[in-house]
Specification:
The chain is built from nine helices and 13 strands. It is an alpha+beta fold. The strands form two sheets. Strands 4-3-2-6-5-1-11-12-13 form a nine-stranded mixed β-sheet. The chain starts with 8 loop residues before the first helix and ends in a 6-residue tail after the last strand.
């Protein structure tokens, strides 16, 4: 107390306010939830896909422990999944009608509502990172196709040969669909989109989502992933959401923003997720999956398809699952990834 003796009261108040701005109060435990796309997973891919989303969630969580905030957490987790050929994003992307890879991604900061997105961009392995550069180095929200590629070159973002983004699995699916022609293909079989939502200890939320799109789709087709309010949404005043499923249906109901709206009306993340998915199914007969968290750290992973690998980390615990109703719980110290 002697340190402050003799200081005018107003000066003390200004110093205290300045200190609070520099050292914000910690409000809660950090939380991160990650998904690898909804759909129907073959039995021989379920275990390894579940392992990879757990790895991504843990890496995102550790990013906070090394000084990152919510935005860094979701970027870290998304890049892990973009670099894994098992998922329809980055290095595991589906092929369009011409057998080429076009990727989309979006990232959003719940503190400022700043958003960056790229759409139908080629030769990019980590579009989430490029989307963040759009957010931070331009006054725009989304760049697409040649504009996104030109921006990437301007900022020195690394490009990769398209062949580096094509897996044997994606090429096989593309060829199967070519041979099938007009024969209907199970719409769940090609899972798409990866995503992450996070809350840091300073009350900031963020979301990031990335996809390689639909297999054999028209060149230039853009789904929900890079569209703010559809593929994802984040707002510190309520929470964050990432969606996965048929993009055209998700965009029609702006699914991510709809779920955030439900939370604003007092619903829990689980209630809001279920209500949003039910509306999508009733209104458009479409399936989807979502990961949701609110600004107090409650979270949920919900889906109406057969599978969606997901993982969440908070405190000292990691939660995960891939089938409906499946939840595994482990202590972080017991997980070796």
């Amino acid at each position: 107390m002697a340190l402050w003796r003799g200081f005018p009261l107003r000066q003390i108040e200004r110093l205290l306010k300045k200190r609070i701005q520099i050292f914000p109060m910690c409000t809660s435990n950090p939380v991160i939830v990650v998904h690898g796309g909804c759909g129907k997973y073959p039995e021989d891919r379920k275990e390894v896909c579940l392992l990879e989303v757990k790895k991504a969630a843990l890496q995102g969580y550790r990013r906070f422990r090394h000084g990152g905030r919510a935005l860094d957490m979701v970027e870290e987790a998304s890049v892990i999944l973009e670099n894994c050929p098992l998922f329809n994003a980055g290095c595991g992307s589906m092929l369009n009608e011409c057998g080429e890879v076009e990727v989309d991604a979006m990232i959003m900061d719940g503190k400022t509502l700043d958003t960056g997105a790229v759409a139908a961009v080629r030769n990019i392995a980590n579009p989430t990172k490029l989307a963040r550069l759009v957010m931070e180095q331009t006054n725009l929200v989304m760049l697409s196709d040649r504009g996104a590629s030109r921006f990437a070159k301007t900022v020195g973002f690394p490009e990769v040969p398209m062949e580096a983004l094509i897996t044997e699995h994606s090429r096989k699916r593309w060829q199967q669909n070519l041979q099938a022609a007009s024969v209907p293909v199970d719409p769940q079989i090609d899972h798409g989109t990866i995503g992450a939502v996070a809350l840091d200890s300073f009350g900031n939320v963020a979301c990031a989502t990335s996809t390689g799109g639909l297999t054999n789709t028209l060149v230039g087709r853009i789904g929900d992933t890079p569209c703010i309010g559809s593929g994802g949404y984040a707002d510190n005043q309520s929470g964050a959401v990432c969606s996965t499923g048929k993009g055209e249906a998700i965009m029609k109901v702006t699914l991510a923003r709809l779920i955030v709206f439900y939370m604003e009306q007092g619903m829990s993340p689980a209630e809001a997720a279920d209500a949003g998915l039910q509306y999508l199914r009733t209104r458009l007969q479409s399936y989807a999956g979502v990961i949701v968290l609110n600004n107090t750290g409650e979270w949920a992973a919900r889906f109406t398809t057969d599978n969606m690998p997901w993982a969440a980390v908070t405190g000292d615990t990691i939660y995960s699952g891939i089938a409906l109703g499946e939840v595994h719980t482990s202590a972080i110290e017991d997980i070796s990834l």
